[in-house]
Amino acid sequence: MANDLQDLRRSTVVSTFGPGSVIDFRADNAAVSGMAAGLEEWDRSFPPAGLANAQTVRETRLQKKLGVQGFRLPPVVEERRKEEDPDTRRLVAVRFPQWLQCPECDRIGPMKNWSDDPGKAYRYCPDCTAKSPGGRKVFVIPVRFVMACARGHVDEFPWHWWVGHKPDCTNLRGSLTLRAEHAGLAGLILKCPKCKASKSMDGIFAKQTWERFSRCPGKRPWLSDADETCTEQLVAVQRGASNLYFAVTQSALSIPPWSDRLQECLGTFWDTLVNIDPSQRELFIDMMAKGELGPVLEELKMTPAQLAAAIDRRVEKYAEIDTSDLRPAEFRQFVEDPGDRIDKDLEFEIRRETVPEVIRPWVATIVRAVRLREVRAITGFTRINPPGDPDSPEVAQLSKTRLPWLPAIEVRGEGIFLALDEKRLSAWESQPLVQQRAAEIHALYRADWKSRHGEDTEPPRIITARYMLCHTLAHALMRQLTLECGYSSASLQERIYAAAGDDPMAGVLIYTATPDSDGTLGGLQRQGKAERIPGILTRALFAIEWCSSDPLCISDMMGAQATFSHSACHACVLAPETSCEAFNSYLDRGLLTGLPGNPQTGFFDGLMRPA
Protein backbone atom coordinates (compact mmCIF):
# COMPACT_ATOMS: atom_id res chain seq x y z
CA MET A 1 0.00 0.00 0.00
CA ALA A 2 1.31 3.49 -0.88
CA ASN A 3 2.76 5.50 2.00
CA ASP A 4 3.24 2.40 4.17
CA LEU A 5 6.10 2.71 6.63
CA GLN A 6 6.85 -0.53 8.46
CA ASP A 7 5.47 -3.08 10.90
CA LEU A 8 5.69 -2.79 14.68
CA ARG A 9 5.53 -5.57 17.25
CA ARG A 10 2.19 -5.58 19.00
CA SER A 11 3.69 -5.36 22.48
CA THR A 12 5.66 -2.20 21.66
CA VAL A 13 2.48 -0.27 20.84
CA VAL A 14 1.55 -0.23 24.55
CA SER A 15 5.06 0.58 25.72
CA THR A 16 7.89 2.09 23.68
CA PHE A 17 5.87 3.09 20.61
CA GLY A 18 2.50 4.06 22.09
CA PRO A 19 0.43 7.08 20.96
CA GLY A 20 2.53 10.23 21.23
CA SER A 21 5.89 8.47 20.83
CA VAL A 22 8.44 9.34 18.14
CA ILE A 23 9.28 6.34 15.95
CA ASP A 24 12.10 5.97 13.44
CA PHE A 25 10.81 4.27 10.31
CA ARG A 26 12.45 3.14 7.07
CA ALA A 27 10.36 3.83 3.98
CA ASP A 28 11.83 2.96 0.57
CA ASN A 29 15.26 2.92 2.24
CA ALA A 30 14.78 6.48 3.52
CA ALA A 31 14.67 7.60 7.16
CA VAL A 32 11.22 8.87 8.19
CA SER A 33 10.44 10.06 11.71
CA GLY A 34 6.80 9.87 12.75
CA MET A 35 4.72 10.32 15.88
CA ALA A 36 2.14 7.62 16.61
CA ALA A 37 -1.33 9.16 16.36
CA GLY A 38 -3.93 9.18 19.14
CA LEU A 39 -6.75 6.73 19.79
CA GLU A 40 -9.30 8.57 17.64
CA GLU A 41 -7.19 7.50 14.66
CA TRP A 42 -7.52 3.88 15.76
CA ASP A 43 -11.29 4.19 15.43
CA ARG A 44 -11.12 6.12 12.15
CA SER A 45 -8.42 4.16 10.31
CA PHE A 46 -9.02 0.68 11.75
CA PRO A 47 -12.81 0.11 11.95
CA PRO A 48 -15.07 -1.09 13.47
CA ALA A 49 -14.65 1.58 16.11
CA GLY A 50 -14.27 1.02 19.83
CA LEU A 51 -15.12 -2.29 21.46
CA ALA A 52 -17.15 -3.38 18.45
CA ASN A 53 -13.79 -4.27 16.90
CA ALA A 54 -13.01 -7.97 17.02
CA GLN A 55 -9.48 -7.38 18.28
CA THR A 56 -10.38 -6.70 21.90
CA VAL A 57 -9.46 -8.12 25.28
CA ARG A 58 -11.03 -7.93 28.74
CA GLU A 59 -9.84 -8.12 32.32
CA THR A 60 -12.58 -7.35 34.83
CA ARG A 61 -10.47 -6.09 37.72
CA LEU A 62 -8.33 -3.82 35.54
CA GLN A 63 -11.42 -2.48 33.76
CA LYS A 64 -12.95 -1.47 37.08
CA LYS A 65 -9.72 0.16 38.27
CA LEU A 66 -9.30 2.22 35.08
CA GLY A 67 -12.99 2.96 34.59
CA VAL A 68 -13.27 1.46 31.10
CA GLN A 69 -15.49 -1.19 29.55
CA GLY A 70 -12.71 -3.10 27.83
CA PHE A 71 -9.41 -2.92 25.97
CA ARG A 72 -8.40 -2.92 22.33
CA LEU A 73 -5.44 -4.91 21.17
CA PRO A 74 -3.04 -3.11 18.83
CA PRO A 75 -4.68 -3.96 15.51
CA VAL A 76 -3.19 -6.50 13.16
CA VAL A 77 -3.82 -6.37 9.41
CA GLU A 78 -5.77 -9.37 8.13
CA GLU A 79 -3.99 -11.76 5.80
CA ARG A 80 -6.29 -12.41 2.85
CA ARG A 81 -6.20 -14.71 -0.12
CA LYS A 82 -4.86 -13.47 -3.45
CA GLU A 83 -8.31 -13.28 -5.02
CA GLU A 84 -9.57 -11.07 -2.18
CA ASP A 85 -9.01 -7.35 -1.81
CA PRO A 86 -6.11 -6.62 0.54
CA ASP A 87 -6.77 -5.21 3.98
CA THR A 88 -5.99 -1.49 3.64
CA ARG A 89 -6.52 -0.57 7.29
CA ARG A 90 -3.46 0.95 8.95
CA LEU A 91 -2.51 2.78 12.11
CA VAL A 92 -1.45 6.36 11.45
CA ALA A 93 1.75 8.26 12.24
CA VAL A 94 2.19 12.02 11.91
CA ARG A 95 5.51 13.33 10.60
CA PHE A 96 7.55 14.76 13.46
CA PRO A 97 9.79 16.64 13.46
CA GLN A 98 8.93 18.46 10.24
CA TRP A 99 12.38 19.99 9.96
CA LEU A 100 14.69 17.82 7.87
CA GLN A 101 18.37 17.87 6.95
CA CYS A 102 20.28 16.92 3.83
CA PRO A 103 23.23 14.69 4.82
CA GLU A 104 25.34 15.91 1.89
CA CYS A 105 24.92 19.71 1.78
CA ASP A 106 23.99 20.02 5.52
CA ARG A 107 21.03 22.25 4.70
CA ILE A 108 18.11 22.08 7.17
CA GLY A 109 14.59 23.31 6.55
CA PRO A 110 10.89 22.55 7.01
CA MET A 111 9.22 19.74 5.06
CA LYS A 112 7.81 22.09 2.39
CA ASN A 113 11.37 23.05 1.32
CA TRP A 114 12.14 19.56 0.03
CA SER A 115 11.05 17.57 -3.01
CA ASP A 116 8.76 14.56 -2.82
CA ASP A 117 7.10 11.90 -4.95
CA PRO A 118 3.31 11.41 -4.86
CA GLY A 119 2.25 8.76 -2.35
CA LYS A 120 5.70 8.42 -0.80
CA ALA A 121 6.66 9.33 2.75
CA TYR A 122 10.26 10.25 2.00
CA ARG A 123 11.62 13.66 1.05
CA TYR A 124 14.81 14.37 -0.88
CA CYS A 125 17.16 17.25 -1.63
CA PRO A 126 16.58 18.45 -5.22
CA ASP A 127 19.99 20.14 -5.55
CA CYS A 128 22.07 17.20 -4.30
CA THR A 129 19.92 14.72 -6.26
CA ALA A 130 20.59 16.65 -9.47
CA LYS A 131 24.34 16.42 -8.83
CA SER A 132 24.39 12.74 -7.82
CA PRO A 133 25.47 10.10 -10.39
CA GLY A 134 22.52 8.60 -12.22
CA GLY A 135 20.04 10.89 -10.51
CA ARG A 136 20.19 8.86 -7.29
CA LYS A 137 17.87 10.46 -4.77
CA VAL A 138 19.61 12.01 -1.78
CA PHE A 139 17.07 11.47 0.98
CA VAL A 140 16.86 14.02 3.76
CA ILE A 141 16.80 12.87 7.37
CA PRO A 142 14.97 14.15 10.46
CA VAL A 143 16.82 16.77 12.52
CA ARG A 144 18.38 15.65 15.77
CA PHE A 145 16.79 18.07 18.22
CA VAL A 146 13.22 18.82 19.31
CA MET A 147 11.59 20.67 22.20
CA ALA A 148 9.46 19.12 24.94
CA CYS A 149 7.91 20.05 28.27
CA ALA A 150 7.14 18.07 31.42
CA ARG A 151 3.40 17.95 30.60
CA GLY A 152 3.93 15.91 27.44
CA HIS A 153 3.87 18.65 24.80
CA VAL A 154 6.41 18.70 21.97
CA ASP A 155 7.39 21.26 19.36
CA GLU A 156 9.97 21.93 16.68
CA PHE A 157 13.36 23.23 17.74
CA PRO A 158 13.44 27.06 17.28
CA TRP A 159 16.21 27.09 14.71
CA HIS A 160 15.76 30.70 13.58
CA TRP A 161 15.60 31.96 17.18
CA TRP A 162 18.74 30.04 18.06
CA VAL A 163 20.88 31.27 15.13
CA GLY A 164 20.10 34.92 15.97
CA HIS A 165 19.64 36.56 12.58
CA LYS A 166 21.11 39.99 11.91
CA PRO A 167 18.52 42.83 11.94
CA ASP A 168 18.40 43.21 8.14
CA CYS A 169 18.14 39.47 7.37
CA THR A 170 15.21 38.39 5.17
CA ASN A 171 15.69 34.65 5.72
CA LEU A 172 13.44 34.38 8.77
CA ARG A 173 11.52 31.31 7.55
CA GLY A 174 13.85 29.70 5.03
CA SER A 175 16.58 27.08 5.22
CA LEU A 176 19.72 27.13 7.34
CA THR A 177 22.83 24.97 7.50
CA LEU A 178 23.89 22.72 10.37
CA ARG A 179 27.45 21.53 9.91
CA ALA A 180 29.74 19.54 12.20
CA GLU A 181 33.04 21.41 12.10
CA HIS A 182 34.51 19.94 15.30
CA ALA A 183 33.69 17.23 17.82
CA GLY A 184 30.81 17.65 20.26
CA LEU A 185 27.98 20.17 20.39
CA ALA A 186 30.46 23.05 20.44
CA GLY A 187 31.61 22.01 16.99
CA LEU A 188 28.09 21.73 15.57
CA ILE A 189 27.51 25.11 13.91
CA LEU A 190 24.12 26.49 12.85
CA LYS A 191 24.43 29.19 10.18
CA CYS A 192 22.18 31.41 8.10
CA PRO A 193 23.28 31.48 4.41
CA LYS A 194 21.80 35.00 3.94
CA CYS A 195 23.08 37.13 6.82
CA LYS A 196 25.96 34.77 7.77
CA ALA A 197 24.86 34.73 11.42
CA SER A 198 26.12 31.58 13.14
CA LYS A 199 26.05 29.91 16.51
CA SER A 200 27.19 26.59 17.92
CA MET A 201 24.73 24.18 19.49
CA ASP A 202 26.69 24.13 22.73
CA GLY A 203 24.47 24.62 25.77
CA ILE A 204 21.14 23.61 24.25
CA PHE A 205 20.55 20.95 26.92
CA ALA A 206 21.05 23.35 29.84
CA LYS A 207 17.75 24.37 31.45
CA GLN A 208 18.88 27.95 32.07
CA THR A 209 19.41 28.36 28.32
CA TRP A 210 15.64 28.34 27.77
CA GLU A 211 14.58 30.58 30.64
CA ARG A 212 14.47 33.56 28.26
CA PHE A 213 12.61 31.59 25.60
CA SER A 214 8.82 31.75 25.38
CA ARG A 215 6.73 29.28 27.38
CA CYS A 216 5.40 26.02 25.97
CA PRO A 217 2.71 26.56 23.29
CA GLY A 218 0.94 23.31 24.28
CA LYS A 219 1.46 21.47 20.97
CA ARG A 220 0.05 17.93 20.81
CA PRO A 221 0.86 16.71 17.27
CA TRP A 222 -0.37 13.16 17.99
CA LEU A 223 -3.91 14.55 18.36
CA SER A 224 -5.71 16.42 15.60
CA ASP A 225 -6.49 20.09 16.43
CA ALA A 226 -6.04 19.51 20.15
CA ASP A 227 -3.39 22.00 21.29
CA GLU A 228 -3.89 23.34 24.79
CA THR A 229 -2.68 26.10 27.10
CA CYS A 230 0.53 25.36 28.98
CA THR A 231 2.80 27.40 31.24
CA GLU A 232 5.68 24.93 31.51
CA GLN A 233 9.20 25.72 30.33
CA LEU A 234 10.34 23.97 27.16
CA VAL A 235 13.66 22.13 27.11
CA ALA A 236 15.68 20.71 24.24
CA VAL A 237 16.02 16.95 23.90
CA GLN A 238 17.42 14.64 21.29
CA ARG A 239 14.76 13.20 19.03
CA GLY A 240 15.71 9.63 19.91
CA ALA A 241 16.34 10.21 23.62
CA SER A 242 14.81 7.76 26.06
CA ASN A 243 13.33 10.57 28.18
CA LEU A 244 11.18 11.81 25.30
CA TYR A 245 8.58 9.12 26.03
CA PHE A 246 7.74 7.17 29.18
CA ALA A 247 4.65 5.00 28.80
CA VAL A 248 2.33 4.96 31.83
CA THR A 249 1.06 1.40 32.06
CA GLN A 250 -1.08 -0.49 34.52
CA SER A 251 -1.53 -4.23 34.60
CA ALA A 252 -3.36 -7.03 36.36
CA LEU A 253 -3.03 -10.78 36.56
CA SER A 254 -6.13 -12.77 35.74
CA ILE A 255 -6.96 -14.52 38.99
CA PRO A 256 -9.97 -16.55 40.14
CA PRO A 257 -12.85 -16.08 39.85
CA TRP A 258 -12.20 -13.61 37.03
CA SER A 259 -10.04 -16.04 35.08
CA ASP A 260 -12.62 -18.78 34.63
CA ARG A 261 -14.69 -19.87 31.67
CA LEU A 262 -17.81 -17.99 32.72
CA GLN A 263 -16.08 -14.61 32.56
CA GLU A 264 -14.46 -15.44 29.24
CA CYS A 265 -17.73 -16.51 27.64
CA LEU A 266 -19.69 -13.49 28.87
CA GLY A 267 -17.21 -11.10 27.27
CA THR A 268 -19.04 -7.98 26.09
CA PHE A 269 -22.28 -9.07 27.79
CA TRP A 270 -20.79 -8.63 31.27
CA ASP A 271 -21.38 -4.88 31.56
CA THR A 272 -24.94 -5.20 30.29
CA LEU A 273 -25.89 -8.07 32.62
CA VAL A 274 -24.29 -6.49 35.68
CA ASN A 275 -26.16 -3.21 35.25
CA ILE A 276 -29.59 -4.86 34.96
CA ASP A 277 -31.81 -4.90 38.04
CA PRO A 278 -31.21 -8.28 39.80
CA SER A 279 -34.94 -9.02 39.92
CA GLN A 280 -35.13 -8.66 36.12
CA ARG A 281 -31.84 -10.35 35.24
CA GLU A 282 -33.21 -13.88 34.73
CA LEU A 283 -36.08 -12.56 32.59
CA PHE A 284 -33.66 -10.55 30.45
CA ILE A 285 -31.38 -13.57 29.94
CA ASP A 286 -34.40 -15.70 29.02
CA MET A 287 -35.45 -13.11 26.43
CA MET A 288 -31.93 -12.99 24.98
CA ALA A 289 -31.49 -16.78 25.01
CA LYS A 290 -32.96 -17.07 21.53
CA GLY A 291 -30.67 -14.33 20.26
CA GLU A 292 -27.17 -13.20 21.11
CA LEU A 293 -26.93 -15.03 24.44
CA GLY A 294 -27.93 -18.37 22.97
CA PRO A 295 -24.37 -19.47 22.02
CA VAL A 296 -23.11 -18.38 25.45
CA LEU A 297 -25.69 -20.49 27.31
CA GLU A 298 -24.97 -23.42 25.04
CA GLU A 299 -21.21 -23.22 25.59
CA LEU A 300 -21.58 -22.88 29.36
CA LYS A 301 -24.27 -25.60 29.45
CA MET A 302 -26.44 -23.40 31.69
CA THR A 303 -30.08 -22.46 31.82
CA PRO A 304 -31.07 -18.77 32.09
CA ALA A 305 -31.81 -19.30 35.80
CA GLN A 306 -28.41 -20.87 36.44
CA LEU A 307 -26.60 -18.09 34.57
CA ALA A 308 -28.54 -15.41 36.47
CA ALA A 309 -27.64 -17.05 39.78
CA ALA A 310 -23.96 -17.28 38.79
CA ILE A 311 -23.93 -13.60 37.84
CA ASP A 312 -25.59 -12.68 41.15
CA ARG A 313 -22.79 -14.40 43.04
CA ARG A 314 -20.19 -12.74 40.85
CA VAL A 315 -21.65 -9.27 41.31
CA GLU A 316 -21.07 -9.60 45.05
CA LYS A 317 -17.40 -10.37 44.41
CA TYR A 318 -17.22 -7.54 41.85
CA ALA A 319 -18.23 -5.05 44.52
CA GLU A 320 -15.35 -6.30 46.71
CA ILE A 321 -12.64 -5.45 44.14
CA ASP A 322 -10.28 -2.90 45.68
CA THR A 323 -9.51 -0.52 42.82
CA SER A 324 -6.90 1.38 44.84
CA ASP A 325 -4.50 -1.57 44.59
CA LEU A 326 -5.05 -4.81 42.71
CA ARG A 327 -1.97 -6.58 44.05
CA PRO A 328 -3.12 -7.68 47.53
CA ALA A 329 -5.74 -9.95 45.93
CA GLU A 330 -3.05 -11.48 43.71
CA PHE A 331 -0.71 -11.93 46.68
CA ARG A 332 -3.44 -13.77 48.60
CA GLN A 333 -3.98 -16.14 45.68
CA PHE A 334 -0.32 -17.12 45.85
CA VAL A 335 0.10 -17.45 49.61
CA GLU A 336 -3.31 -18.37 51.04
CA ASP A 337 -5.06 -20.73 48.64
CA PRO A 338 -4.31 -24.25 49.90
CA GLY A 339 -4.92 -26.09 46.65
CA ASP A 340 -3.29 -26.34 43.27
CA ARG A 341 -5.18 -24.87 40.35
CA ILE A 342 -5.25 -27.42 37.57
CA ASP A 343 -8.50 -26.58 35.76
CA LYS A 344 -7.65 -26.57 32.06
CA ASP A 345 -10.11 -23.72 31.46
CA LEU A 346 -8.43 -21.35 33.90
CA GLU A 347 -5.86 -18.71 33.08
CA PHE A 348 -4.29 -19.15 36.51
CA GLU A 349 -2.57 -22.43 37.30
CA ILE A 350 -0.11 -22.74 40.16
CA ARG A 351 1.90 -25.51 41.84
CA ARG A 352 3.04 -25.12 45.43
CA GLU A 353 6.46 -26.31 46.50
CA THR A 354 7.63 -27.32 49.94
CA VAL A 355 10.12 -24.73 51.14
CA PRO A 356 13.52 -26.49 51.57
CA GLU A 357 14.98 -26.45 55.07
CA VAL A 358 18.08 -24.55 53.97
CA ILE A 359 16.14 -21.41 53.00
CA ARG A 360 13.09 -21.79 55.27
CA PRO A 361 14.19 -19.10 57.77
CA TRP A 362 14.07 -16.48 54.99
CA VAL A 363 11.51 -17.76 52.48
CA ALA A 364 7.96 -18.58 53.57
CA THR A 365 6.31 -19.60 50.29
CA ILE A 366 7.44 -20.94 46.91
CA VAL A 367 4.93 -21.21 44.09
CA ARG A 368 5.45 -22.30 40.51
CA ALA A 369 3.04 -20.41 38.27
CA VAL A 370 2.53 -22.89 35.46
CA ARG A 371 0.05 -20.68 33.61
CA LEU A 372 -0.45 -16.95 33.96
CA ARG A 373 -2.29 -14.29 32.03
CA GLU A 374 -1.46 -10.62 32.41
CA VAL A 375 -3.32 -7.75 30.76
CA ARG A 376 -1.17 -4.65 30.39
CA ALA A 377 -2.83 -1.37 29.40
CA ILE A 378 -1.30 1.99 28.53
CA THR A 379 -3.16 4.92 30.12
CA GLY A 380 -0.95 7.83 29.05
CA PHE A 381 2.67 8.92 28.94
CA THR A 382 5.12 11.46 30.32
CA ARG A 383 8.10 13.27 28.88
CA ILE A 384 11.33 14.44 30.55
CA ASN A 385 10.54 12.72 33.88
CA PRO A 386 9.54 9.07 34.45
CA PRO A 387 5.95 8.66 35.70
CA GLY A 388 5.39 8.73 39.44
CA ASP A 389 1.63 8.99 39.96
CA PRO A 390 -0.67 7.64 37.19
CA ASP A 391 -3.11 10.47 37.99
CA SER A 392 -0.46 13.22 37.90
CA PRO A 393 -1.14 16.27 35.68
CA GLU A 394 2.18 15.48 33.98
CA VAL A 395 0.61 12.42 32.34
CA ALA A 396 -0.35 13.27 28.75
CA GLN A 397 -3.57 11.84 27.33
CA LEU A 398 -3.86 9.35 24.48
CA SER A 399 -7.08 10.87 23.08
CA LYS A 400 -8.82 14.24 22.91
CA THR A 401 -11.83 12.96 24.87
CA ARG A 402 -12.14 10.08 27.30
CA LEU A 403 -13.04 6.85 25.51
CA PRO A 404 -14.63 3.70 27.01
CA TRP A 405 -11.54 1.69 26.10
CA LEU A 406 -7.75 1.79 26.26
CA PRO A 407 -5.02 -0.01 24.29
CA ALA A 408 -3.72 -3.17 25.94
CA ILE A 409 -2.02 -6.46 25.29
CA GLU A 410 -2.45 -9.80 26.99
CA VAL A 411 0.56 -11.86 27.92
CA ARG A 412 0.39 -15.56 28.69
CA GLY A 413 3.36 -17.16 30.33
CA GLU A 414 4.83 -18.77 33.42
CA GLY A 415 6.68 -17.67 36.50
CA ILE A 416 8.12 -18.20 39.97
CA PHE A 417 6.71 -16.59 43.11
CA LEU A 418 8.63 -16.22 46.37
CA ALA A 419 7.24 -14.78 49.62
CA LEU A 420 9.63 -13.77 52.40
CA ASP A 421 9.24 -14.77 56.03
CA GLU A 422 7.22 -11.97 57.63
CA LYS A 423 8.52 -12.44 61.20
CA ARG A 424 12.17 -12.32 60.16
CA LEU A 425 11.49 -9.44 57.77
CA SER A 426 9.82 -7.34 60.47
CA ALA A 427 12.80 -7.80 62.78
CA TRP A 428 15.26 -6.95 60.00
CA GLU A 429 13.50 -3.77 58.84
CA SER A 430 13.46 -2.43 62.40
CA GLN A 431 17.28 -2.04 62.38
CA PRO A 432 18.29 1.66 62.51
CA LEU A 433 20.81 1.40 59.64
CA VAL A 434 18.26 -0.35 57.41
CA GLN A 435 15.66 2.31 58.16
CA GLN A 436 18.22 5.06 57.54
CA ARG A 437 19.11 3.77 54.06
CA ALA A 438 15.45 3.59 53.09
CA ALA A 439 14.76 7.03 54.59
CA GLU A 440 17.57 8.58 52.54
CA ILE A 441 16.08 7.24 49.32
CA HIS A 442 12.58 8.37 50.25
CA ALA A 443 13.92 11.86 51.06
CA LEU A 444 15.45 12.11 47.58
CA TYR A 445 12.23 10.84 45.99
CA ARG A 446 10.11 13.26 48.04
CA ALA A 447 12.32 16.24 47.19
CA ASP A 448 12.16 15.39 43.49
CA TRP A 449 8.38 15.06 43.65
CA LYS A 450 7.99 18.44 45.34
CA SER A 451 10.28 20.12 42.81
CA ARG A 452 8.04 18.85 40.01
CA HIS A 453 4.59 19.24 41.60
CA GLY A 454 4.98 21.98 44.18
CA GLU A 455 6.03 22.23 47.82
CA ASP A 456 2.47 21.81 49.05
CA THR A 457 2.12 18.31 47.52
CA GLU A 458 3.17 14.93 48.86
CA PRO A 459 4.29 11.91 46.79
CA PRO A 460 1.77 9.09 46.38
CA ARG A 461 3.96 6.45 48.03
CA ILE A 462 6.58 5.91 50.71
CA ILE A 463 9.79 4.12 49.71
CA THR A 464 10.37 1.50 52.39
CA ALA A 465 13.22 -0.90 53.13
CA ARG A 466 10.74 -3.73 52.51
CA TYR A 467 10.05 -2.53 48.97
CA MET A 468 13.74 -1.94 48.20
CA LEU A 469 14.59 -5.42 49.47
CA CYS A 470 11.94 -7.12 47.35
CA HIS A 471 12.79 -5.01 44.31
CA THR A 472 16.53 -5.71 44.48
CA LEU A 473 15.87 -9.42 45.11
CA ALA A 474 13.73 -9.53 41.95
CA HIS A 475 16.57 -8.02 39.90
CA ALA A 476 19.11 -10.45 41.33
CA LEU A 477 16.84 -13.41 40.55
CA MET A 478 16.13 -12.23 37.01
CA ARG A 479 19.85 -11.93 36.27
CA GLN A 480 20.50 -15.42 37.62
CA LEU A 481 17.50 -17.01 35.92
CA THR A 482 18.67 -15.81 32.51
CA LEU A 483 21.76 -17.96 33.09
CA GLU A 484 19.90 -20.92 34.58
CA CYS A 485 17.07 -21.41 32.08
CA GLY A 486 18.16 -19.66 28.89
CA TYR A 487 15.63 -16.83 28.72
CA SER A 488 16.85 -13.49 27.49
CA SER A 489 16.96 -10.80 30.18
CA ALA A 490 14.40 -8.69 28.32
CA SER A 491 11.87 -11.56 28.23
CA LEU A 492 11.54 -11.68 32.02
CA GLN A 493 9.66 -9.17 34.14
CA GLU A 494 9.16 -8.53 37.84
CA ARG A 495 6.01 -7.95 39.85
CA ILE A 496 6.66 -6.66 43.36
CA TYR A 497 4.33 -7.28 46.30
CA ALA A 498 5.49 -5.12 49.19
CA ALA A 499 3.36 -3.42 51.83
CA ALA A 500 3.27 -3.05 55.59
CA GLY A 501 0.30 -2.50 57.87
CA ASP A 502 -2.61 -4.78 58.73
CA ASP A 503 -2.20 -6.91 55.59
CA PRO A 504 1.58 -7.00 55.03
CA MET A 505 3.06 -8.27 51.78
CA ALA A 506 6.62 -9.19 50.90
CA GLY A 507 6.97 -11.21 47.75
CA VAL A 508 8.23 -11.19 44.16
CA LEU A 509 6.89 -12.77 41.01
CA ILE A 510 9.35 -13.32 38.16
CA TYR A 511 7.47 -14.20 35.00
CA THR A 512 7.77 -14.25 31.25
CA ALA A 513 6.53 -10.96 29.87
CA THR A 514 6.73 -11.31 26.10
CA PRO A 515 3.67 -12.30 24.03
CA ASP A 516 5.59 -14.79 21.91
CA SER A 517 6.86 -18.36 22.24
CA ASP A 518 9.26 -17.43 25.06
CA GLY A 519 6.35 -17.49 27.48
CA THR A 520 5.37 -21.08 26.80
CA LEU A 521 8.61 -23.04 27.01
CA GLY A 522 8.19 -24.15 30.62
CA GLY A 523 11.83 -23.62 31.49
CA LEU A 524 11.20 -20.81 33.93
CA GLN A 525 8.63 -22.35 36.26
CA ARG A 526 10.66 -25.57 36.50
CA GLN A 527 13.44 -23.58 38.16
CA GLY A 528 11.05 -23.05 41.08
CA LYS A 529 11.09 -26.71 42.11
CA ALA A 530 12.19 -27.39 45.66
CA GLU A 531 15.42 -29.08 44.62
CA ARG A 532 16.49 -26.18 42.39
CA ILE A 533 15.39 -22.91 43.97
CA PRO A 534 17.81 -22.90 46.95
CA GLY A 535 20.80 -23.09 44.62
CA ILE A 536 19.42 -20.41 42.33
CA LEU A 537 18.74 -18.07 45.24
CA THR A 538 22.17 -18.49 46.83
CA ARG A 539 23.98 -18.13 43.48
CA ALA A 540 21.99 -14.98 42.75
CA LEU A 541 23.03 -13.51 46.10
CA PHE A 542 26.70 -14.43 45.80
CA ALA A 543 26.75 -13.04 42.25
CA ILE A 544 25.89 -9.55 43.52
CA GLU A 545 27.84 -9.67 46.80
CA TRP A 546 30.86 -8.36 44.96
CA CYS A 547 30.56 -6.02 41.99
CA SER A 548 33.27 -5.30 39.44
CA SER A 549 32.71 -1.61 40.20
CA ASP A 550 33.39 -2.01 43.93
CA PRO A 551 34.34 -0.21 46.12
CA LEU A 552 32.68 2.63 44.21
CA CYS A 553 29.36 0.80 43.78
CA ILE A 554 28.94 -0.43 47.37
CA SER A 555 29.78 3.06 48.65
CA ASP A 556 27.00 4.68 46.59
CA MET A 557 29.32 6.45 44.14
CA MET A 558 28.16 4.72 40.94
CA GLY A 559 24.44 5.44 40.75
CA ALA A 560 23.03 8.73 39.54
CA GLN A 561 21.03 10.60 42.19
CA ALA A 562 17.96 10.64 39.93
CA THR A 563 17.70 6.82 40.15
CA PHE A 564 16.98 6.96 43.91
CA SER A 565 19.21 3.97 44.56
CA HIS A 566 22.10 3.15 46.87
CA SER A 567 24.45 0.33 45.87
CA ALA A 568 23.37 -0.46 42.32
CA CYS A 569 24.94 -0.30 38.87
CA HIS A 570 24.85 -2.09 35.51
CA ALA A 571 27.52 -4.53 36.64
CA CYS A 572 25.45 -5.92 39.53
CA VAL A 573 21.68 -5.40 39.74
CA LEU A 574 20.34 -3.09 37.02
CA ALA A 575 18.00 -4.80 34.54
CA PRO A 576 16.58 -3.88 31.14
CA GLU A 577 14.04 -1.08 31.60
CA THR A 578 11.36 -3.22 29.97
CA SER A 579 11.83 -5.77 32.76
CA CYS A 580 11.73 -3.33 35.67
CA GLU A 581 8.47 -1.81 36.86
CA ALA A 582 10.26 1.14 38.53
CA PHE A 583 12.69 2.27 35.78
CA ASN A 584 15.68 0.81 37.68
CA SER A 585 15.03 2.95 40.75
CA TYR A 586 14.83 2.07 44.48
CA LEU A 587 17.58 -0.55 44.42
CA ASP A 588 20.16 -1.40 47.09
CA ARG A 589 22.10 -4.66 47.04
CA GLY A 590 23.45 -3.78 50.47
CA LEU A 591 20.01 -4.67 51.88
CA LEU A 592 20.36 -8.20 50.47
CA THR A 593 23.97 -9.09 51.14
CA GLY A 594 25.07 -6.58 53.78
CA LEU A 595 27.56 -3.71 53.83
CA PRO A 596 31.30 -3.79 54.57
CA GLY A 597 31.57 -3.65 58.34
CA ASN A 598 27.80 -4.03 58.75
CA PRO A 599 26.82 -7.45 57.37
CA GLN A 600 23.63 -7.47 59.47
CA THR A 601 22.07 -4.92 57.10
CA GLY A 602 21.71 -7.76 54.61
CA PHE A 603 18.45 -9.67 55.01
CA PHE A 604 20.12 -12.83 53.65
CA ASP A 605 23.33 -12.41 55.67
CA GLY A 606 22.61 -15.62 57.63
CA LEU A 607 22.07 -17.59 54.42
CA MET A 608 25.33 -16.39 52.85
CA ARG A 609 27.44 -16.52 56.02
CA PRO A 610 25.94 -19.21 58.30
CA ALA A 611 27.15 -19.27 61.87
Description:
The relative contact order is 0.10. Strands 3, 4, 15, 16, 17, 18, 19 and 20 form an eight-stranded mixed sheet that branches. Helix 7 (278-288) packs across helix 9 and helix 13 crosses helix 15. The chain is globular. Strand 6 and strand 7 (107-110) form a beta hairpin. Helix content is 25%, strand content 19%. It has helices at residues 39-45, 60-66, 126-131, 159-163, 261-266, 269-274, 278-288, 294-300, 304-319, 327-335, 422-428, 432-453, 465-485, 523-526, 533-545, 590-593, 605-608, and strands spanning 22-27, 30-36, 56-57, 70-72, 93-95, 99-101, 107-110, 141-142, 145-148, 154-156, 176-180, 188-191, 198-200, 235-238, 246-253, 349-353, 363-382, 405-420, 492-499, 505-512. It is of the alpha+beta class and 611 residues long. Residues 340-345 have low confidence and may be disordered.
Key features of this structure:
6-stranded antiparallel β-sheet; alpha+beta; 17 helices; 20 strands; 611 residues; 8-stranded mixed β-sheet; globular
The number of distinct helices, counting runs of at least 4 residues, comes to: 17
* Helix-residue proportion: 25-40%
Low-confidence stretches: 340-345
| Radius of gyration, CA atoms, in whole angstroms | 28 Å
Range of strand content: 15-25%
Shape: globular
Distance between the termini: 70 Å
Structural class: alpha+beta
Strand and helix map with partners:
Elements: E1 22-27, E2 30-36, H1 39-45, E3 56-57, H2 60-66, E4 70-72, E5 93-95, E6 99-101, E7 107-110, H3 126-131, E8 141-142, E9 145-148, E10 154-156, H4 159-163, E11 176-180, E12 188-191, E13 198-200, E14 235-238, E15 246-253, H5 261-266, H6 269-274, H7 278-288, H8 294-300, H9 304-319, H10 327-335, E16 349-353, E17 363-382, E18 405-420, H11 422-428, H12 432-453, H13 465-485, E19 492-499, E20 505-512, H14 523-526, H15 533-545, H16 590-593, H17 605-608
